[in-house]
């Protein structure tokens, strides 16, 4: 049975060694809670580092066995790997860059190499467990290369990736020397998820500018497959936090803490020690608040819980010193014999203590400079059973997109933070309740279980969508069936796209002149009286006439603007529909005026506004505007607006290759139809074909064609093979006719 494999840098347990004994401590993180219900089902498994360096083979074996019982599989990392992969590249290169602290980022080739090696190590661990139809869910920035490594080894697997930290703007991401490799790594996924739309937008923009892949509605079309990028704001286990806040034990602790503080009002802040969390700015704001509002002296205390984190990394050591110094200075300046403005704890506490702090706090002060989501603010909201309390939240946290009822602040604006503190500490209870209720409604609904199911549903949807657009390779068995159908048909129609299906693309279009072999193939194919051969192209008719005009074939040129039947010569429908161009050209020129780098291309049958040289965001913005504008006009006319790759094209509705091919289908008998094409324009041909037709796309990109071949050489080989049958058939057919 297909299973789910979860992969993250850390397992949801922490391995500890006490007096030679190996012990596992369960992690209380949001991810562990959210996925806890599914990773223990059936054969599902969670793969990751157990949080301790274990070197001896015997001990490793013991850890493997113990974890197996809990549906976990460890990846053992060495001391050096922890230093270079985890503390180094993950936390000194990616973390600062992704949180807009690129001035702290270290660019070190050795750290990168270890990052690659450890991602490969994770890949081996997953491959050892995975079957082709399994689903693999990879988590976070330590494993950005893993999706592609897995895709190489397990091409058919379903791979989801979720990034828990922000994805920075292209201008910041591009600073990384390994930016291309990192993006390529992520694109091995079928679904890439972020907390917010902004992260998703930044990622798509980097993919576009660095790798050159465009996107439409979150879909990135690689040459061989498509993947989806979407946002999934992560929630918390609401029932767990609101439930524990309601227990007697938590009420008892909250009361004790409260009694021990002389201040009437308590502000809480809880974070890992990290420069992204904005701790110094928060302290600066408190200091200014006490200076500006002396009436609060003795009346308000900030309980600041800072959880030790990454203390081996230099920047974190510096931050610790800075925070210690600031707390000392502010307390030294304002404390009196009974009261301290700040109660500072540098350690971690059990969940009950955390909950008691949430329960007793009048205000939660959450002020990150950047945060992917921030769960602490959601936990505070869930813990407020009586619906009082005020949340001050940085707009730089992903959570601010959902919690618009909080007092939103910019953590760089100290004055705004000071005024927000005043507002929060003096807010009437009724007003507090209105906001708190609204926030609770939101996070109750969008909880961690909702998040998991949204991601998994979307991943299944992507797979179904990919399959519906997938073509199967035209193998030997299908070829035999096709040959049989060809042989038994009394009339046959061939639609053969010239560029990409009969000949390879060249840098210069006029270099793609047909070879003698191709001319010979087309001659032989069209010399059978049962066959009608139509070569289809976007090229100009004069070009096609020059190259193929002497053959006994029909031709569709310029997407169907011109058609040539051997019997009647070239005909066009162009005159019917040229008068629209003047009006549309005026509109496109307006967009060229407003959009530096864009330009208009005029074709016989269409006008195209190109924006591939325009600054990325601007081009997309104008294109959306233009498409709306044109669609409004086109609704009363016979025009079609195509929102293409970096271009918006307007053409007469009746012009496309599909319409042109329909003409032959209606005019000529066809017991056998074969259509071969290669690009998006040829999809119109495939769509126009009868259900019984053999439709073949060159290349295995997504298509409505039934089959694909890899190269145009294969397509030509297939046609030659059919002709071998044809000559045998002509010999026997002759005998049949005379017989
Ligand atoms: C990353 C992203 C994103 C804290 N102290 C104690 C303790 N905690 C728990 C909190 C909360 C968690 O740790 C911290 O989560 P955050 O979301 O606030 O921050 P990160 O650790 O940086 O997490 C972040 C998250 O991933 C999820 O995608 O939201 O943006 O940076 O749950 O309660 N728990 C206990 N004792 C403590 O002392 N038991």
| Annotation, overall tally of beta strands | 30
Residue-averaged pLDDT: 90
The 3D shape can be described as elongated
Helical segment count: 25
Beta fraction of the residues?
15-25%
Main sheet: which strands, in order across? 5-4-1-6-7-8-11-10-9
Distance between the termini: 59 Å
What radius of gyration results from the CA coordinates? Answer: 33 Å
Low-confidence runs (pLDDT<50, min 5 residues)?
731-739
Please state the structural category: alpha/beta
Characterize the main sheet.
9 strands, mixed
Structure ligands: GDP-alpha-D-glucose
Question: Portion of residues in helices?
Answer: 40-55%
Written description of the protein model:
With 739 residues, the protein is α/β, with parallel strands linked by helices. It has 25 helices and 30 strands. The longest helix is centred in the last third of the chain and has 27 residues, at 712-738. The protein is elongated, with a radius of gyration of 33 Å. It starts with a strand and ends with a helix. It binds GDP-alpha-D-glucose. GDP-alpha-D-glucose (GDG) binds next to strand 12, helix 13 and helix 14.
